[in-house]
Specification:
Elements lengths: L1 H49 L6 H12 L3 H11 L9 H26 L3 H9 L4 H31 L11 H12 L2 H31 L4
Helix pairs in contact: 1-4, 1-7, 1-8, 2-4, 3-4, 4-6, 5-6, 6-8, 7-8
Length: 224
C-alpha cells in the first residue's frame, strides 16, 4: 500500500509540468482565440438582427438554429473527420478553433442582441433627433449600456469555453485533457491523473470567475 502511494505521488509530480505546459500551450490559446473570434461573429450576427438587414437575416437565423440545435462534439467531428471526405482537410487545432468560434458566436449573438434590445428605444429616437446615425448611436450610446447587461452571461460563456476545450482531445489536440489521457495510457492511473487535470481546470476557472466578479463590479459601480 505504501509503495503504491509513493508511486502515485511520483506520477502526479512528474505529470504536473507536462499538464501545466499543455494548458498554457494549447488550452489557454484555444480558449482565447476562439472566444475573441466568437464574440466578433456574435456581434456581427446580433447587428444583422437588430438592424433588420433583410438579405442576411435568414442566413444568420439558420446559422444560430443549426449550431444551437446540434451537439458541439458532433460539430467538431464534422469539421475534423467529416470534411476530408469532400476534399476539405483541416488540422486538429484549426478544426477546434472553427468549431468553438461558431459555437460561441451562435450562443452569444442572442445574448448581445437581447442586451442591445433591452435599451429603451427612446434613446435611439433621441439620438436620431440629434442627427446621429444608427452606427454612431449604437457605438456611443447603446453599446456602453448594453455591455452592463451582456457582461455576466458572456463571461459565463468564456468560463464554459475553458471546460469545453477538453472536447478538443477527441480531435487529437494535445491540450490539458488529452495530455492527461496520454500519461494515463502510460501509467495506468486514470483516477489520479484525471483528478489532477480537473484541478488545473478548477484553478483556471476559479481565477476567471474572480476576475468576472471584478468586471461585473466595475460595470455596476454606478448602477445600471
Amino acid at each position: 500500500m505504501q509503495e503504491r502511494t509513493i508511486r502515485i505521488i511520483e506520477i502526479l509530480m512528474e505529470s504536473f509540468f507536462p499538464l501545466l505546459k499543455a494548458m498554457l500551450q494549447f488550452t489557454v490559446p484555444l480558449t482565447i482565440i476562439s472566444f475573441i473570434l466568437g464574440i466578433l461573429v456574435a456581434f456581427g450576427v446580433a447587428i444583422i438582427r437588430v438592424f433588420h438587414i433583410k438579405p442576411l437575416i435568414p442566413i444568420v437565423k439558420f446559422y444560430v438554429w443549426l449550431i444551437r440545435g446540434t451537439p458541439l462534439m458532433v460539430q467538431l467531428f464534422i469539421l475534423f473527420y467529416g470534411l476530408p471526405s469532400v476534399g476539405v482537410t483541416l488540422n486538429a487545432f484549426t478544426s477546434a478553433i472553427i468549431g468553438f468560434t461558431l459555437n460561441i458566436g451562435a450562443y452569444n449573438s442572442e445574448t448581445i442582441r437581447a442586451a442591445i434590445e433591452s435599451i429603451d428605444k427612446g434613446q435611439w429616437e433621441a439620438a436620431h433627433a440629434l442627427g446621429l446615425t444608427r452606427w454612431q448611436t449604437l457605438i456611443r450610446i447603446i453599446f456602453p449600456q448594453a455591455i452592463k447587461v451582456a457582461v455576466p452571461p458572456v463571461s459565463n460563456s468564456f468560463i464554459g469555453l475553458v471546460k469545453d476545450t477538453s472536447l478538443a482531445a477527441t480531435l487529437t489536440v494535445t491540450e490539458l485533457f488529452h495530455k492527461a489521457q496520454q500519461i494515463t495510457a502510460r501509467t495506468y492511473e486514470p483516477l489520479w491523473l484525471y483528478l489532477e487535470a480537473a484541478f488545473f481546470y478548477l484553478i483556471l476557472c476559479s481565477v476567471l470567475a474572480y476576475y468576472q466578479g471584478k468586471l461585473e463590479q466595475k460595470y455596476n459601480k454606478y448602477g445600471t
